[in-house]
Amino acid sequence: MPLLWNEIDNIIHEYSDNADGAEEVYFVIYKEIDGIISEIYSAEDHHVGFYPMAGMFEGSVEQRIYETGEPYQSNNYNSADGSYMFVAYPVTDESGEVVALLETGTDLYVFNAENSELVKNVLVYVFMSLIIALLILGEVIISREGLADRRPAIKEKRPISPNIIRPLVFIVYFAANMSTAFTPLYGTELWRESDPFSAEIAAALPISVETVAAALATVLAGFICDKTGCKNLSFAAAFFYISGNLMAANANNLYVFIGANICTGAAGGMFAIAINAYIAAFSDEEYRSKGFAGLNAACLAGINCGTVVGSMIAEHLGFSNTYLAAACIVPAMVVLVALCMQGRKYLAPFTAEENDEESDSKKSMSVFRFICKPRVLMFFVMINFPYIICASFLSYFFPVYGAESMLTETQISLAFLLSGVVSIYLGPVLSEVISKRMGTYRSMLFASVIYASALVFFIVSPSILSCFIVVAMFAVADSFGLTAQSVYFTNLPEVKKLGNGKAMSINTTVENISSACGPMIFAYIFILGTEKGLMILAAGFVLMLTIFAAAHRIIEKKDK
After folding, report:
1. Burial level of 186, CB count in 10 A (0-12/13-18/19+)?
2. Alpha-carbon gap, residue 239 to 245, rounded angstroms
3. Which residues face 103 on adjacent strands?
4. Under 8 Å CB-to-CB from 38, ≥6 apart: which residues?
């Protein structure tokens, strides 16, 4: 049988170039010549020729294949080259007669290493699926109370149990965060060398633009909500969510993707105002407290489940299909809004009754004067801003660093799951224990110290494992630190003078602006060099924290 060596060589190397792990597989063709097995082709060495092999043909495995036409497999073949597993196949002519043998195999050590990696990935999938299932089950169980109370509440014309908002909040943040783990990577993929900025900036821009859009939408949505109601504002948010995800799924350049993120950011801002205003409108204080607690828990659960599931879809089906999946989930939000949100006639307007003296004192302080107050300005600039900037380590730095270290999207999302689980389950316990022992002020400082220590740890020992440790340290700090920051801020005399509503609106705007700056700062950290950039960031964080502690002590002494 004439062997077309060039054709065989092209077929084998085309397979090697396209198949995963094929570069570790060898291909050799043997033929019996005058009672001796000879190598006549090798894809590894790119040669064709007759090279006699050790051993006689008579009584060998090769003779048996020639006679029976059946392939032979060995899982432990020891030779001078090491331990291999291989399969020898018969090559036949038109009449079915065996004329040569094709042997393919690989190094057992390589094979076992790949198997170990496969087992590790399967275990990661199982672990993540188990956590997701537990989070979803928890939301379903808690939501049942609200769903069971829906009909009686409508019949009695009273507010439904606030637990009914749990499935709505969960599904919204689930869909909104399906792209969280790979947004910087998608931005880099859509970047072109002709764009007027670097690839690092391209990775950071979509996140920053989305956060800015959310901040602007939050300001505008507050006025819109008063006129249209929470329900209509939520429907508008759903429209923007669907539009943004469809744009991202079909983005062919970075500018379309940025436009998509503007839409999803605006949607996030709208929904945040709608759901917070709805909960605040409960006339019963217990309902409000229960509603905000449920909002935080369902939000964290949705973020973590959405991040993991979205990453799995992205890894196997691509980024675009993840956005399409998110767009398909959002209509469920519309249904849940219709079921879960009641009209204004069931809720009391959330207005605080104030005496004339308090009202006059609040009117006397403008927003500008409020922000310029030393305590307020110090909190925003030296605590809130650097803390939120460093939080972008998870949303921006880790996905980019992980991708450079050959982590898959699913493995990257494991960090988000780790962060969420630690915050969800440690938060209530640590907040109570640490705040009682250390007080609000010291708890807030302690959380910032943990953040700074985590950055220093990564600078000293940069690795993927260190990344996960930093994420865990951040999550521990967040579990009590964010609560401590909120309590400290609301306890400031200036906040009480201005009013909680206005003050919290300003605080939210500052947080959104800080979140928008975070990815851009980390992008410049990559440009400067990871270790050098993080060292500057950590030093700045520690400096701000030290100045804040010293200034706080001076102000406290002056007030006494």
Report:
1. buried
2. 10
3. 28, 88
4. 30, 31, 32, 50, 51, 52, 53
Q: Under DSSP, is residue 367 helix (H, G, I), strand (E, B) or coil? A: helix
CB-based contacts of 514: which residues, under 8 Å, 6+ apart? 384, 385, 388, 389
Mean pLDDT of 100-121: 66
| Beta-bridge mates of residue 106 | 25, 85
Beginning with the edge strand found earlier in the chain, give each strand of the sheet holding 36-42 in spatial order.
47-56, 36-42, 25-33, 98-107, 82-92, 72-79
Query: 296 near 166, Cβ under 8 Å?
Result: no
Q: Which among 136, 101, 132, 117 is positioned nearest to 27, based on CA atoms?
A: 101
Residue 445 one-letter amino acid: L
pLDDT at 358: 44
From the list 367, 383, 315, the residue with the least C-alpha distance to 544 is 383
* For residues 261-270, average pLDDT: 90
pTM higher than 0.85, yes or no? no
Helix, strand, coil share of the chain (percent; to 5):
75, 10, 15
How much is the pLDDT for 109?
60
pLDDT band, very low/low/confident/very high, at 547 (cuts 50, 70, 90) = very high
C-beta separation of 180 from 307 below 8 A: yes
Question: Residue 341 to residues 40, 149, 323: CA-CA distances in angstroms?
Answer: 76, 13, 26
Q: With 0-12 CB in 10 A as exposed, 13-18 as middle and 19+ as buried, what is 44?
A: exposed
Residue position matching structure tokens 């821009």: 205
Contact yes or no for 192/254 (Cβ under 8 A): yes
545: closest CA among 435, 470, 448? Answer: 448
Neighbouring CB atoms inside 10 A of 447's CB total 24
CB of 311 within 8 A of CB of 407?
no
**Residues found in the chain:** 560
CA 381 to chain centre: 27
d(CA 328, CA 322): 10
Least confident of 44-53, 131-140, 168-177, 503-512: 44-53
Integer Cα distance of 235 and 299 in angstroms: 18
- Beta strand 25-33 pairing with 36-42: antiparallel
Tell me the two tokens of residue 4. 């077309």
CB atoms within 10 A of CB 515: 21
Q: Contact 164/150 with Cβ under 8 angstroms?
A: yes
545 CB-near residues (< 8 Å, 6+ apart): 382, 383, 386, 445, 448, 449, 452
Measured between alpha carbons, how far is residue 73 from residues 100, 107, 382 in Å?
16, 14, 68
Nearest one of 125, 133, 120 to 305, comparing CA atoms = 133
CB 380 within 8 A of CB 371: yes
Encode pLDDT of 178-204 as tens digits. Answer: 887 788 888 888 888 888 878 878 887
Q: Please, are residues 85 and 111 in contact by the beta-carbon 8 Å criterion? A: yes
Tokens read off for 182 = 């790979």
